[in-house]
């Protein structure tokens, strides 16, 4: 049997059909992402683009931190919590750099929402990988 047939055979043997919950999660995420720009534009009427982005990011950080604490307390035993390795300086530097670039991207997107329509701003933001790449 050729390599390609073995790979295809192993994939088809392990295939698990998606559940209804996964489609519901996908639908909810799609609606949330579709409404994000509209909600940001509405928020900018009250507080401004940089404050809007700050609020989005710190609320997300709190939610993700609580999720992390819950996953650690439920999934990992106390012995596994101490076995985690310390990240290297280069990894921390890359993580900080990615955070700065990601935050700048969201801030510039929020600023663009003050200058143009939601559709135009969202289209430009989603086409940036095509333009840069």
Structural summary, described in words:
The chain has 6 helices and no strands. By secondary structure, the protein is mainly alpha-helical. Helix 2 packs antiparallel against helix 3.
Rg on CA atoms, Å: 21 Å
Would you report the number of β strands? 0
**Count of alpha/pi helices:** 6
Mean model confidence by pLDDT: 82
Report how far apart the termini are.
38 Å
Approximate strand percentage: under 5%
Biggest sheet details? none
Q: Which consecutive residue ranges, at least 5 long each, have pLDDT under 50? A: none
Q: Which term fits the overall shape?
A: extended
SSE run: HHHHHH
Helix percent reads over 70%
Q: How do the strands and helices of this protein lay out in sequence?
A:
Layout: H1 3-13, H2 20-46, H3 49-75, H4 78-81, H5 89-115, H6 118-132
């Amino acid at each position: 049997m050729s390599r390609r047939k073995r790979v295809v055979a192993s994939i088809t043997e392990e295939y698990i059909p998606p559940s209804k919950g996964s489609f519901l999660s996908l639908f909810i995420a799609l609606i949330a992402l579709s409404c994000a720009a509209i909600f940001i534009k509405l928020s900018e009427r009250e507080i401004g683009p940089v404050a809007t982005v700050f609020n989005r990011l710190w609320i997300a950080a709190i939610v993700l931190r609580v999720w992390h604490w819950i996953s650690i307390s439920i999934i990992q035993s106390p012995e596994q919590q101490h076995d985690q390795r310390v990240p290297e300086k280069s990894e921390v530097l890359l993580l900080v750099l990615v955070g700065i670039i990601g935050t700048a991207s969201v801030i510039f997107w929020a600023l663009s929402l003050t200058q143009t329509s939601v559709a135009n701003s969202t289209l430009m933001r989603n086409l940036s990988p095509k333009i840069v790449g």
